[in-house]
Amino acid sequence: MTTSPDPLVIALPKGRILKECMPLIRAAGIEPEAAFDDPDSRQLTFATNHPHIRIIRVRSFDVATFVAFGAAQLGVCGNDVLMEFEYPELYAPLDLGIGRCRLSVAELAQGADRGSLTHGDPSQWSHVRIATKYPEVTRQHFAARGVQAECVKLNGAMELAPTLGLCSRIVDLVSTGSTLKANGLVEVETIAEVSSRLIVNRAALKVRPAELNGWIDTFRTVVEKGAA
Amino acid sequence: MSDTVSKALLPAGLRDFLPPDAALEAHVVSGLMADFGAHGYERVKPPLIEFEENLLDGAGAATSKDTFRVMDPVSQRMMGLRADMTIQVARIATTRLAKAPRPLRLCYSGQVLRVKGTQLTPERQFTQAGLELIGSDSPAADAEVIALAAGALAALGVQGVSVDLNLPTLVPVLCDELELSPETQLRLRAALDQKDAAAVREMGDPVQDLFGELIRCSGEVDTVMERLGRLDLPQAAAQRRDRLKDVVALVRRLMPGLSLTVDAVENRGFEYHTGISFSIFAPGARGELARGGRYRAGTAKEKAVGCTVYVDTVMGVIAPPADRPRLLLPYGDRAQAAAWQSKGWITVAMLEDGIADPEAEARRQRCTHYVSNGQVRTVG
Fold first, then answer.
1. GO cellular-component terms in the record (chain B) (predicted)?
2. pTM of the entire structure?
3. Which of A50, A59, B195, B219 could link A91 by a cystine bridge, Cβ 3.0 to 4.6 Å?
4. What is the reported pLDDT for B134?
5. How many angstroms separate the CA of residue A24 from the nearest CA in chain B?
């Protein structure tokens, strides 16, 4: 069968990761249309130099959802998102080595319970209240040591929550730690090291193995060349 | 909120099937049952609820977390609502039909219920249809079930049916062979499930050496079988590979044009499988259309192979059968209905006499044609 190939949709995350991601996409021989780099463009989907390939730009959490539901076949998102959703319909065959940071627990440097008997000894806690964008990961992380985590779901500015008494701790992405410091927080524990992964829809990989394995190999070569 | 809204609300994951979906579902089920039946599979019908300890015994343990429980007020014992029918059919085969000659071929269809949907498939009630071949360990049995399921789906009009063959027991066998610690096995399993080659490489030898190659064994059948063939596998694993090779050859002979892929490290959804397993995919379908493989049936642990078709997923990728024309019959002509029906019409009888504009009435009743003065007229 050499008829025109089926459409291929690649979902990319908006924002910080996108900048790091585009050199890899271009090195793999995919060049989006000019509007992609135009900050004023309201477009959400972009044609590329391959007639059958389109790129969509969505929020990092939504990349995983688009690919899991098969609305996009390939995508780029952090393993923080993969851990939170645990979609069985996704494969994450390649660590792109970009968007490096860590998912950490942080608390007030001068907290109310600093110096108390149970402070800093999680084995004595039965319950913690935590503000986070990652309720599932947080719950599992604390449950593994017998602590029940009551999660307050926030979508941003987590660092404000402890200062204003909303909770005692937060679980969030940390890269340099400067935002934490500026808000009087200290990082007390790392839950996971985070980097961006190439993700693939499971059914798509089964139905179009040669094509999608081909792209995975192409990106692997690009990443290995970059690392060397 | 108005009364009609609140009365229409169903619990999460449950839905009403309206025309034409309900008819399409019946069409899929009857197509599958006819196909399986034509190959000697006889239909059985287990009950919706049975005692929990039977339902969740052996292979059924994997469905425990999905099963609704109710207390039986009569026996005062816990009962489970089935979350999977394979277990029930296996029970029938190894108890009531224990003395029936082997191999035993059974098929079934029915509703299953599960406690929680997933984000991808929020439905909690769905239709399963399947076949079980009990009491044969022959590779020909695996091939028969695979070809029959794939063939039946293609016959229903599913385009681009593709079968992914798996060996869920291969990785555990290799782990035992390498005497990996339980922690290492967990890490390895996670990396293999993600198809993350780099994570496997980081685990160093001897894991990297063997599994680094194995993780690449996924894709089009010829490429993968060739790669698998080159691997230097310990005996127990090599036996499984050779068996897969036999089954591939047999399926090829039964269905020469069928698209086949192999994934040597796939593990998802094969909780109770003990040998060659498979999933059936098609372009445009969300997730798999069917899943099956080798398992041990009942407490007797009889060798069996089977396949479950997810009817709701199939419905998403096939065109409904063409609507037959609907003919509005005049009041009192009900007696002629059979004659019209034998010519292929669906007939809708008028229940009131003296309707002035039969054409408007036909349109209102969604009829394509109506009878006036003994003549069939088309609704304009």
1. cytoplasm
2. 0.90
3. B195
4. 97
5. 17
B190: in domain? no
**pLDDT (0 to 100) of residue A1:** 43
Q: Is residue A2 part of a domain?
A: no
pLDDT of residue A86 exceeding 70, the answer is yes
Q: Is the pLDDT confidence value at A120 over 70?
A: no
Confidence of residue A121 (pLDDT cuts 50, 70, 90): low
Asked if residue B104 and residue B73 are part of one domain, the reply reads yes
Q: Is residue B199 part of a domain?
A: no
Partners of A210 on chain B (C-beta within 8 Å) are 219-220
Per-residue pLDDT, A40? 84
Residue in chain A lying closest to B161 (CA): A207
- Structural domain tally of chain A? 2
Q: Residue A113: its pLDDT value, please?
A: 57
Tell me: pLDDT of A123 over 50. yes
Cβ neighbours of B286 in A, within 8 Å: 69-70, 203
Residues of B numbered 164-203 whose beta carbons fall under 8 angstroms of chain A's beta carbons: which are they?
A: 164, 194-199
User: What pLDDT, on the 0 to 100 scale, is given for residue A112?
Assistant: 54
Same domain, B270 and B357: no
Task: Tell whether B33 is in a known binding site.
Answer: no
Tell me the C-alpha to C-alpha distance, in Å, between residue B104 and each of A81, B88, B131, B133, B304. Answer: 47, 15, 11, 6, 9
- Per the document, the length of chain B is 380
Asked whether the beta carbons of residue B261 and residue A220 sit closer than 8 angstroms, the reply is: no
Which tens digit of pLDDT belongs to each residue from A187-199? 989 999 999 999 9
Please tell me whether B86 is known to bind a ligand: yes
Per-residue confidence (pLDDT) for residue B239, from 0 to 100: 93
Residues of A in contact with B263 (CB under 8 A): 206
CATH number at B105 reads 3.30.930.10
Query: Is there a domain that residue B55 lies in?
Result: yes
Residues in chain B with pLDDT values less than 50: none
Kindly determine whether residue A92 and residue B120, on different chains, have CB atoms separated by under 8 Å: no
Tokens of B44: 């059985």
Q: Which residues of B59-69 are buried (b: 16+ CB within 10 A; e: fewer)?
A: bbebbeebbee
Q: Does B164 contact A206 at a Cβ distance shorter than 8 Å?
A: yes
Q: Which domain holds residue B349?
A: 326-378
Exposure b/e, B174-205, CB count within 10 A at least 16 = b: bbeebebeeeebebbeebbbbbbbbbbeebee
Contacts of A65 in chain B (CB under 8 A): 119
Is B159 within any annotated ligand binding site? no
* Chain segment A126-143, per-residue pLDDT in tens: 888 999 999 999 999 999
B132 annotated to a ligand binding site: yes
**Chain B CB within 8 Å of residue A92 CB:** yes
Say whether pLDDT at A38 is over 60. yes
CA–CA dist B279, A211 (Å, integer): 20
